[in-house]
Amino acid sequence: MIQSMTGYAAVSSEFARGAIHVELRSVNSRFLDIQFRIAEDLRQIEPALREAIVARVARGKVDCRVSWSPAADSRRQPALDTELLSQLVELERRVRGTAVDGSPLSVAEILRWPGMLGDDALPVEEMRAACVGLIKLALEEFTATRGREGAKLGGMLEERVAGMRGLVAIVTPRVPELVLAHQEKLRARLLEAIGAGAEQFGERIAQEVALFGAKIDVAEELSRLVAHLDEVTRVLAKGGAAGKRLDFLMQELNREANTLGSKSVSPETSAAAVELKLLIEQMREQVQNIE
Fold first, then answer.
1. Class of domain 7-74+124-146
2. Backbone phi, then psi, for 55, in 5-degree steps?
3. For residue 143, which of 55, 113, 248, 267 sits 20 to 30 Å off, Cα-Cα?
């Protein structure tokens, strides 16, 4: 199954001290571009989250948001860590014994010392395990939404491919007849332009008519169109990260449709070329959304 690059998922988990919320959203991008918005207390967990996302997502601009909401009753009254305070005072005494010009620690600096008022930091390992578990759940929902969107895109592309095959099937049997008719018109015009004594230029006229027939023969372009359509069908059936391959095929299909239009010598072929280009453009726009 092909995947869209547009997706969304959000999951949460409750803990005694609060709740973790993980949100994933993505839009189109040529490459995989992951942006994180993470609560500062959980910043150390970012590498683990990135690793989990890279394992499941190949392309797209992914926005990952992780927030922490403390429980209403999780706040407690600050209390000095007397043991840490004693250690800090002793260390200051030793330092000032050597650096006599050093300024003493202020009360504000002591109170701001890490852990002096108790350790309110979140347990990193516990949070890491919780966040990794949540990101995996979010990625399941995220890839499911991208898969559903991808299935719709694939169905649309298959409809356009069927439409293009129908146009090719109409034009292909008419090609020999159209080439022959225009060769006869050219032969008649050359004979009329030369007038008397045209018989002596019979071989040259035949050469010019044959050259003209080769120039307007679009059988090769139609054959390549069918080959490219077969490849589009194969890529869609295979699934996976197919966006770049499909984008290349759209360029090739457009090249053949342009050549078909430029070599056209009949309103029927010209109309088919215009319709082909319209279908290809519709496909190309949607291919930009495929991973």
1. alpha beta
2. -70, -20
3. 248
Tell me the one-letter amino acid at 210: A
Is 290 a residue whose pLDDT tops 70? yes
The pair of structure tokens assigned to 134 is 């949540």
Name the residue with tokens 């360029």: 251
Q: Regarding predicted confidence, which is higher, 262 or 147? A: 147
Domain-by-domain residue ranges, the chain? 7-74+124-146, 82-112, 148-287
Distance CA 69, CA 17 (A): 9
Report how far residue 256's alpha carbon sits from residue 168's, in angstroms, rounded to the nearest whole number: 12
The torsion of the CA quartet 57, 62, 252, 259, rounded to 10 degrees, works out to: 160
User: What is the sign of the dihedral through the CA atoms of 260, 261, 263 and 268?
Assistant: positive
Alpha carbons 77 and 254: distance in angstroms, whole number: 70
Tokens for 41, please give them.
Answer: 């207390």
pTM: 0.69
Q: Tokens standing for 267?
A: 């309103």
